[in-house]
Amino acid sequence: MWYYIVKIAVTTTLVVVISEISKRSSLIGAILASVPLVSVLAMIWLFIDTKDAGKVSELSSQVFWLVLPSLALFILLPILLRLGLNFYLSMGIAVAVTAVCYGLMVVLLKSFK
After folding, report:
1. For residue 113, what pLDDT is reported?
2. pLDDT tens digits for 11-58?
3. Residue 24 falls inside a structural domain
4. How far apart are the first and last CA of the chain?
5. Taking the CB of residue 90, how many other CB atoms lie within 10 A of it?
6. How many domains does one find in the chain?
7. How far apart are CA 57 and CA 60, in angstroms?
8. Is residue 39 part of a domain?
9. What is the residue range of 107's domain?
């Protein structure tokens, strides 16, 4: 049980620290947020849990391919905000388009298996 609490605490702390740093410097916040900390932590936790390097390798490969559709959010959100759309509407549209891109990528990846 303590192990899960530690996992949650470490992961949550990173997200909070990055958001607090972003209040002071968007550049430093962006640098920290762009580092795949969550992916690295997920791979570490997976390896600790399973001791299976193959599973870590598979996760790493899948994360790579699924980073591509996530770029839609980072392209679309600033465009919508610059057009003057409300933040929540812009975020909702960007997340919805990103979800569609994820769906398309999953279908594409399945076709190559």
Report:
1. 67
2. 889 889 888 999 998 888 877 777 777 788 889 989 999 999 999 999
3. no
4. 37
5. 19
6. 1
7. 5
8. no
9. 52-113
Cβ-Cβ contacts under 8 Å for 43 (sequence gap 6 or more) = 56, 59, 60
Task: Report if residue 95 sits inside a domain.
Answer: yes
Whether the CB-CB separation of 101 and 75 falls below 8 Å is answered with no
- Please report where in the chains the tokens 């905000």 appear, as a residue: 81
Neighbours of 80 (CB within 10 A): 18
Nearest to 102 by CA among 63, 50, 76: 63
Please indicate, yes or no, if residue 103 is contained in any of the structural domains: yes
Tokens of 78: 């600033």
What amino acid is encoded at 79 in this protein?
I
- Report the pLDDT value the prediction gives residue 7, as an integer from 0 to 100: 81
The C-alpha atoms of residue 94 and residue 75 are separated, in whole angstroms, by 9
Residue with tokens 């870590």: 56
Q: Is the model more confident about 78 or about 36?
A: 78
